[in-house]
Amino acid sequence: MSEEKKPQLKRELAVEWSNEPTHFISFYATPDAVEDVKQFGRITLFSDAPNLYHLVVDGRYDFQEVLEYLKNY
After folding, report:
1. How many Å apart are CA 64 and CA 73, to the nearest integer?
2. How confident is the model at residue 47 (pLDDT cuts 50, 70, 90)?
3. pLDDT tens for each residue of 11-44
4. What's the pLDDT at 12?
5. HEC profile for the chain?
6. Which of 10, 18, 56, 72 would disulfide-bridge 25, Cβ 3.0–4.6 Å?
7. How far apart are CA 36 and CA 29, in angstroms?
8. pTM for the full model?
9. Which sequence spans correspond to the domains of the chain?
């Protein structure tokens, strides 16, 4: 397949999955985007997928506000 037809990255951050009761958000992101959102809680890199991160939102932040921020990043 030629390089011209290869899909290109459209966003720096995309939410994969979230669970409000556990304050958990899974998302794909570039390193720059991760730096921008790390203030919202504990972020870990998922070992089996490149650029997939898990965020446990700090209880001092409103979960829905953080989730919306990430979705609109």
Report:
1. 14
2. confident
3. 999 999 999 999 999 999 999 999 999 999 999 9
4. 97
5. CCHHHCCCCCCCEEEEEEEHHHCEEEEEECHHHHHHHHHHEEEEECCCCCCEEEEEECCCCCHHHHHHHHHCC
6. 18
7. 10
8. 0.88
9. 10-71
